Amino acid sequence: MFTPPRKNCSLCPRLVEFRRCNQQKFRNYYNAPVPSFGNLDAEILIIGLAPGLNGANQTGRPFTNDYAGDVLYPALKNWGFARGNYEKKADDGFELLNVRVSNSVRCVPPQNKVTGEEVKTCGQFLIDEINNMPNLKIILTLGSVAHNAVLGVLGYKKSAFKFAHGAIHNLDKHNLLMINSYHTSRYNINTGVLTQEMFDDIIKQIKLRLS
């Protein structure tokens, strides 16, 4: 059985201190390790970086009320991986279909930057999650941090699997495919590193591989 981090998880001192500050500053925010969104029986797991301060850290649902979710969730719905209306709040009734969404680090980090030690520490929850997804076939990593986090917890050499947008990696020991995408962040969209069309194509490729 998958055991997510407790709401008062104290494993990462820097993140705990930041959480305490936010609990005072933003009293109506979720301000805790953000649980994954979607069912454990899904065939697809999407891994991001960490909750956004005014996004998932506020709403308590990954990529929700965050610009990255404005790109992610419409693409999932467009290709039949979600239903309902995404309204940027955890109780909007939006539902994922055959997809689960999570993050490499479950707590919001200062300046949206995680440390290697925090990724490693939170990896215990990521590997537990992966091990409790019996139908898992494809892991979509949004950005290099997520890419390296997955390789780390599964025991693969990072040098053997170079991150690149659209790259597909065979994780043969686990009978999994790992697909890379640039993160759907506002920065990447605004700078043209990633477009909605580019990301839609990634989701399309996943759809075709499951057909």
SSE map:
Blueprint: H1 13-25, E1 37-38, E2 44-48, H2 56-59, H3 67-78, E3 82-83, E4 95-96, E5 99-103, H4 116-131, E6 138-142, H5 144-154, E7 168-171, E8 176-181, H6 186-190, H7 196-210
Parallel strand pairs: 2-5, 2-6, 6-8
Antiparallel strand pairs: 1-5, 3-4, 7-8
Structure, described:
The protein is built from seven helices and eight strands; from the N terminus they run H-E-E-H-H-E-E-E-H-E-H-E-E-H-H. It has 211 residues and is an alpha/beta fold. It has a single domain, classed as 3-Layer(aba) Sandwich (Uracil-DNA Glycosylase, subunit E). The strands form two sheets. A six-stranded mixed sheet has the order 1-5-2-6-8-7, with helices on both faces. A two-stranded antiparallel ribbon has the order 3-4. The two termini are 29 Å apart. The mean pLDDT is 97.
Keyphrases for this structure?
211 residues, Uracil-DNA Glycosylase, subunit E, 6-stranded mixed beta sheet, two-stranded antiparallel ribbon, 7 helices, 8 strands, 15% strand
Poorly predicted runs are none
Helix tally equals: 7
Write out the CATH superfamily name: Uracil-DNA glycosylase-like domain
CATH level-3 fold name: Uracil-DNA Glycosylase, subunit E
Supply the CATH architecture.
Answer: 3-Layer(aba) Sandwich
Widest sheet: strand ordering: 1-5-2-6-8-7
